[in-house]
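Changelog entry: the AraC family transcriptional regulator record was regenerated in this release. Current contents:
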Amino acid sequence: MDEATARSLGRAADVVARRADDTAAAERLGLGLSRLRTVPGGLAYQRYTPSLSVVLAGRKRSVVGDDDQVWGLDRFFITPVDLPVLSGVVATDERYGFLSARWRLDPALVTEVATAMPRTRREPSGPLDRLGAWTPALAGVFARLLGLLDEPEHIPLLGPQFARETVLRLLQTTQAPRVLAATDAHDPVVPRAVRLLTERIAEPWTLDALAAEVSASRATLSRRFKQATSMTPMQYLKRLRLGEARHRMVVRGDSAARAATAVGYRSAPHFTRDYRLVYGTSPAADAARAREQLREWAG
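Regenerated structure tokens:
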């Protein structure tokens, strides 16, 4: 990492360390901030909305489909559409513990900036790395955006300006295809497919049925979906169903059978097999362990 980028991200970490609890100012900037002193065990299911995710101190493991990576300050993570992710903190920093920030990508803003940019849009020629590399310009504007947490009175004036520049700088990185995938205007196929799977999670989807719904061929849907999410549509649906079932068991207290049925599984053994492959244990055992952890953290 070059010196200018390191300085900018260092300033960003300082701000988040001081202001992680300032939820009001963070919300005005479209930011979600987190600070942890200790390392929780294991992976947890999360639904990421379209966003730019940054680890400013410590390291994190993220599993998206078959893509399993550990990352930290040197990279960033673009989520172009709602994405089921397994993630967990694997290391903390001596000074800060674990710090992270997630900034919502506004599809309308992405469309506005992309339309005004003098650039030629091309399909990526090969597989796209899910983690992006910082540029000095991107790190600089992101640090300025976070710096507004120290000057919340300037958010109405400078917030929109820094947000536009952040999108512009993202579109100048290799992650531009993923950023553009957040907009229906650029490519409606993937956002529409994600909405269908999310809103109608329990339906017996097939790739043919989903392709017909979004007016695309099987090949086009599969290729674009893989580029945007690192998963095939059916892998995405499976991870979505398992995550929602886990939420129902842990938070709502549903039985494994009830949760499985609610998200579209027709076979209890099939659900248990898929669940064990992802979470490493049975649905009932995992839910009991997760509820116990929640009680410990709350108490």
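The beta strands are 31-36, 44-48, 51-57, 59-64, 67-71, 75-79, 83-91, 98-104, 131-133.
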